[in-house]
Here is the input.
Amino acid sequence: MITIRRSEERGHFDRGWLNTYHTFSFGSYSDQAHAGFRALHVLNDDRIAPGRGFGAHGHRDMEIFTYVLEGGLAHNDSTGERHVLKPNEIQAMSAGTGVIHSEFNASQTEPVHLLQIWILPAAEDVPPRYQQFAYDPSEKQGRLRLLVGPDPDPPEPAAFIHQDARAYASVLAPGKTLEQPIVPGRHAWVHCANGNITLNGHALKGGDGAAVSGERALMLAGCGPSGGELLLIDLA
Amino acid sequence: MTAINVLIVFYSRRGKSEALALAAGVGAIQARANVRLRRLPDLADPETIQSDAAWSENVERMSKDYIAPREEDAQWADVLILSAPPDRTEEMEQYLDSARDVIQGRTGVVLGTFAAKAAVVGVTVALPTDDAGDAAAATAYARRTVEAVRAAKTGAAGAP
Here is the structure.
């Protein structure tokens, strides 16, 4: 079964400095029908104005990863990590016993567009951990590039998270197709980040998502004038 | 679990008191408290700040990371974490005076040399068991204080 979550049906707040869409309940946006999917808890699609951002705040017991589509996001945290996250990089943070961090648009002139995904951890009270690394953009062209997962020895460099969930990124040119089998009993969330794709024949545009359960495979294709960019999250 | 709200108020120029405040904040989060972080504005004039590269650079960053404490923050808080440099307590002392009516009776984790002043305005200063000038000790101090305040609040709520 594939259940589509349309871009325009998401929780939406335009605060001037922040234009955000919540696929699932988040903060003041509460929607019992869309309060997460399996261990996937939050999927926020944020555009932050130049120089602005989220001031220092705390997290506990959450696996948080961030995928920048455009611009740069500066991160400071209580473990002393200070970095700027850009496209074709992955950042994952295990909040565990507790982390305080801030996130700001690193530019004074250009906006930043990012996806932030929160996954419920399988274990509480783990030591806080921060990971960030870059990959070559060609690694997600026409294939699924693993970003985060629970495997201690992943098939390609990926951030470790404390949950049986794997997130992949892919950029599909128009007409490019990709088939991904789903292990029986597992589920998937597909989020179209940009452009246009199809998922098992369903058209998804930028901001659309889809919950996938009881399917044997995902058939993904780029379509429209310039194809699309997607995140796929494989979930128990 | 009884919710405990922790307001962290600090004054820092070059980041040391900020780091201690963050370490204590992490201790509060470890104890599953809700936290708000606030920085006290500089009393020094802009020219003095500009003449010190490390200070002005930190002020620029911290002015984005933190807003100044508001009255509603103190009203919201069960516990205060207060951090200021040992040799510069003026900003903190002014805050304690100005917020006196709201903060009296709150339990305070004091990281600095202004414990007596905090007590004078009515903050119940929790006692550190060892030198809280180090980050790990500040974390433990805040965690233990939040746990004690929660135990007291839970006990009070459960009393007949």
Observations:
- Residues 34 and 72 of chain B are 15 Å apart (CA to CA).
- Chain B is about 50% helix and 15% strand.
- The first strand of chain B starts at residue 5 and ends at 10.
